[in-house]
Amino acid sequence: MTQSITIPSASDFHLHLRQGDMMRMVTPKVAEGGVSLAYIMPNLQPPVTKTEQALSYKEELQALAPDVTFYMTLYLSPDLTVDEVRKASKAGIAGVKSYPRGVTTNSDSGIENYEIYYPVFKAMEEEGMVLNLHGEIPSDLDNDVCVMNAEEKFLPQLEKIHRAFPNLKIVLEHATTSAAVDLVKRLGDTVACSITVHHLQLIVDDWAGQAHHFCKPVAKYPHDRQALREVVASGHPRFFLGTDSAPHPSHVKETACAHAGVFTTPLVLPYLCKIFEDIGCLDKLENFACHFGRSFYGLKQKEGFQDKKVTLVKQENVVVPATYEISSAQPQLGKVVPFLANKDVGWKIVENFC
Amino acid sequence: MTQSITIPSASDFHLHLRQGDMMRMVTPKVAEGGVSLAYIMPNLQPPVTKTEQALSYKEELQALAPDVTFYMTLYLSPDLTVDEVRKASKAGIAGVKSYPRGVTTNSDSGIENYEIYYPVFKAMEEEGMVLNLHGEIPSDLDNDVCVMNAEEKFLPQLEKIHRAFPNLKIVLEHATTSAAVDLVKRLGDTVACSITVHHLQLIVDDWAGQAHHFCKPVAKYPHDRQALREVVASGHPRFFLGTDSAPHPSHVKETACAHAGVFTTPLVLPYLCKIFEDIGCLDKLENFACHFGRSFYGLKQKEGFQDKKVTLVKQENVVVPATYEISSAQPQLGKVVPFLANKDVGWKIVENFC
């Protein structure tokens, strides 16, 4: 008996596609993973802070992946004005991403005190733009803050912003803790969580000494993973896919100070089939990966892409590639090691975008 | 003004000196770090389970470091008999090391249920041998056990063994949590903790993506580090130095799956001066590094070594070497990266073993 599943092409509401050669390698792989709508993070160098930058970046991405609908974000910083927010909204930019200072890749321009942004949040609320929060506070030894509790200690900030702007759509990105799940469930319909592929699979042990599993926020305790698994298994509509797929060449992972990020783009749906099957909720995959995010954001794919389907078949020896070369013309740029490299993921896309 | 400190040569009550070329590189560095008494772990390949093995290993080490007094341990396994314990004790072997199965380097022969060892513990108690516990239970997702709470969840085992054998000297090795500190303080005079150099310095953030700071047990929360710092600053006599210095070639650290271990042997006393100075308890260093451990164990240095002194001076630009080559004749064996490589440790041994 062959087990197969056919669902609409997926939406990834948290994606890093980088720049230059890395962008050229990674972007065509979005569709390969079964994803047709991608919400793109703005933490480039320099960060995407202006509408024109976002549109120009979008154009680059669309040329590389014509079948994918891209939605763009701006990087929240003190330079972001209310006028720029309104302009961005009119140009179809869907959200603004906030990074706490120093917490993750290219977040040095990030922020700590949200009140200075209240005029911007007000404009976003009026425009229907989404606030995407990297929900961690910076480590602080005097106050017992470290990577293991940085998300939980951020949650009062999320609640405070929500109370101040109850109609502002807020996504707590890449949730990793039971505390985050509990809070977001408790808050109103305007607050949601994105959940990555890898945080449904990993715990702290998996990144202890394992650079390719090291990401920010770090994976936490078994009970935290269980809370993520339970909320997706429950079919809660405010918890949806955002992979946070973040490619780095292996030479900046397998080194003394590894860069943070897990690369899942090329195999998003096969990974998810495997994990949802393990959890025992394969029937919840379609809503999690395809519908809940679009519905929360109110975003559609571009014309002609509404009915694309992806079919996956369960089979043995679907081995994840060991690496992806960044550029065959420039081998010195290195290779990216994907999530679960060399492992049997057990599911394969047999028809894509049909 | 020159700041200097003169103390007796130190005792390291938890040391890995390996075998073969690594042993030949590392062992002479024990004295370089200001250490003249070393208590050697038995997790070789194969583990040291017999008196003869331990004595033959001791002979190898003494030939490489004639100024150092070595005390040996046996590896606790179901093969260890009461007769072997008595024989070992008569031969001067000072302790038996217990590793939970699968928790750290070469611990596959380790154990989980201590009651099967009660006859051995009884004999050790009678002989005055020390039980050295690697205090972690194996990770278990169903019971929320992971590397972050594996020590705390082990503590009931420690208490149970102590209650069964109140006169058995037990050392909870390389304590990393405030919970461990609290329990050991609460238990009687026969229970002690060794504390490493690196656990007085690191927290979880420091090994997140940083392979050279990855060790088992992993460094924990800021409040845990604070508890370790406070107990050494308090001058508690049952908390003393055991470095757990564990060299690995950099190619098995800077890779996808890093080996666990931090290498501190060549600079033990300079590191400790720096850390104790930062904590503000340089006056407590001598007891922690030189006296408390020997006193708990009741061990002496060999004849003629009682009065050796080490003088350290505080100065700038005492830069920790980037690497130590394992064998100049065999460069392919690689190099070991020491703790705080390329960093200014701020203290230098100017007279050693005088």
Automatic annotation (TrEMBL), chains A, B:
<dbReference type="Pfam" id="PF04909">
    <property type="entry name" value="Amidohydro_2"/>
</dbReference>
<dbReference type="InterPro" id="IPR004721">
    <property type="entry name" value="DHOdimr"/>
</dbReference>
<keyword id="KW-0479">Metal-binding</keyword>
<feature type="domain" description="Amidohydrolase-related">
    <location>
        <begin position="68"/>
        <end position="178"/>
    </location>
</feature>
<comment type="similarity">
    <text>Belongs to the metallo-dependent hydrolases superfamily. DHOase family. Class II DHOase subfamily.</text>
</comment>
<keyword id="KW-0665">Pyrimidine biosynthesis</keyword>
<keyword id="KW-0378">Hydrolase</keyword>
<dbReference type="GO" id="GO:0044205">
    <property type="term" value="P:'de novo' UMP biosynthetic process"/>
</dbReference>
<dbReference type="GO" id="GO:0004151">
    <property type="term" value="F:dihydroorotase activity"/>
</dbReference>
<comment type="pathway">
    <text>Pyrimidine metabolism; UMP biosynthesis via de novo pathway; (S)-dihydroorotate from bicarbonate: step 3/3.</text>
</comment>
<dbReference type="InterPro" id="IPR002195">
    <property type="entry name" value="Dihydroorotase_CS"/>
</dbReference>
<keyword id="KW-0862">Zinc</keyword>
<protein>
    <recommendedName>
        <fullName>dihydroorotase</fullName>
        <ecNumber>3.5.2.3</ecNumber>
    </recommendedName>
</protein>
<dbReference type="GO" id="GO:0046872">
    <property type="term" value="F:metal ion binding"/>
</dbReference>
<dbReference type="GO" id="GO:0005737">
    <property type="term" value="C:cytoplasm"/>
</dbReference>
<dbReference type="InterPro" id="IPR006680">
    <property type="entry name" value="Amidohydro-rel"/>
</dbReference>
<dbReference type="InterPro" id="IPR032466">
    <property type="entry name" value="Metal_Hydrolase"/>
</dbReference>
<dbReference type="GO" id="GO:0006207">
    <property type="term" value="P:'de novo' pyrimidine nucleobase biosynthetic process"/>
</dbReference>
